[in-house]
Amino acid sequence: MTDNLTLGDRLRIARRTRKLSAAQLATKVAISPSYVQKLESGARKAAPSLVLALANALHFGPEVLTGQPYYGEPEAEDGVHAVIPELRRLLLCYDSPDELEIAPRGLPVLASEVDQVSALRRDARYAPMGPLLPSIIAELTHVALGAQDREQRQAYWHLVRAYRAVNSLAHKMGHHDLSSTALERVRWAADRSGDPLMQVTAGYLVAGAMLRQGAYASARRKLLALRTELERLQPERSYTAEALAVDGALVLKLAVAESRDNNPDGTDGYLREAEEIARLGGNRDSHAYEMSFGPTNIRIHNAHALIDMGDTEQALARLVEWAPSGGEWAPPAATVGERASHHYIDVASAKLVVGDRAGAFGDLQKARKIAPNHTRFHPSVRETIGALLRMDSHPSNELSSFGSWAGL
Which one of 62, 160, 354, 405 is at 20 to 30 Å from 200 when CA atoms are compared? Predict the structure, then answer.
């Protein structure tokens, strides 16, 4: 069930399917023909923004180039995809659910389980999270549809969080159609929760999906409109701590939009604004509305933006600059697993570009230790570890074992 093709292999097949030469494709994405050839041969690794640009130019979804979703040995061990069919059914029947065999549990019990799911989501522990979702969503749906007033709004509020977990699981595992459906359910439940900040959060998630599809202008407009709405909700910018965290997350997403659009000045401006918002909040890392906003996430976004724009050397230099006493900066131990593992996956990719193979592999190992499910199914990990294996004529047992674990 695993094709074992590289991104370069899939790019070449897709290009030929569309009957384009390397030069014609290069013109469409504003790179050189030789760069396309290097991507296809595996000599160069494409940043996520370039993968998306190539996919759009070829009129394919990005999953055609990344090969998602991945099955094979990783799925046999982790079983993370097994819950997807049931989640599809539940989200399809969101407003007309199947009858339950027994009455749903009380809202406090379900809310506690959503707390557990949210913690697993933040730490990218998708394998244990997935099986919890169907029963929670089914029961919460019945409570929300059958309750009234405050209890109903609370049920919808927690249902937003459960749908958000489905969105994360589906997106990370490569089920992009389910991810889009989950986002529609997030918006539906948020509108019924009676919580304006939750509605802004729903919009933030939709903007993130727009970025993943290359709709940079649309995402930018949506994020700016959400900030305007947030300012209307918090008169004279007397923001609560939770509103500051939400605003900070919106600004960081704007920085991503600018970096994906290759606008260094715009990216830097939003990162500086995010730092100011963090100072207003006491420079504390916050998880309000599960946004993971604060100094740590700002630095993670700073490095990510530089890598995304191709300035890998500057990104690696920043990590050294931020280190308190030699070495390179690392997210604090308390950083949520999804964010910390994403950082190491990004940095591994950057180190591979500058020829630091040992450093790249070391960072992939750190990501695996923090969030194995996230790491194992991440397209960039597969490309990085695949490149390391191809570059080494006699790979170590450790490197070979990692490649096998990732399904290569």
Answer: 62
CA distances from 295 to 248, 298, 376 (A): 10, 5, 27
Strand partners, 286: 293
Contact between 316 and 354 (Cβ < 8 Å): yes
Q: What is the pLDDT of residues 184-194, one digit of tens each?
A: 999 999 999 99
Record the pTM. Answer: 0.91
With CA atoms as reference, report the closest residue to 166 among 202, 118, 222: 118
Tokens of 145: 């549809």
At 283, the amino acid letter reads N
Q: Side-chain half-sphere of 197: how many Cα atoms within 13 Å?
A: 17
Q: What is the Cα–Cα distance from 155 to 372, expressed in whole angstroms?
A: 31
Domains of the chain: 7-66 (1.10.260.40), 81-194 (no CATH), 196-309 (no CATH), 336-408 (1.25.40)
Question: 334: burial class by Cβ within 10 Å (0-12, 13-18, 19+)?
Answer: exposed
Rounded Cα–Cα distance for residues 24 and 2 (Å): 30
Name which of 195, 137, 197 is nearest 165 in CA terms.
137
DSSP 335-379: S-HHHHHHHHHHHHHHHHHTT-HHHHHHHHHHHHHH-HHHHHT-H
Number of separate helices (H) and strands (E) present in the chain:
23, 0
Q: What is the pLDDT of residues 318-353, one digit of tens each?
A: 999 999 888 899 999 999 999 999 999 999 999 999
CA distance 73 to 82: 14
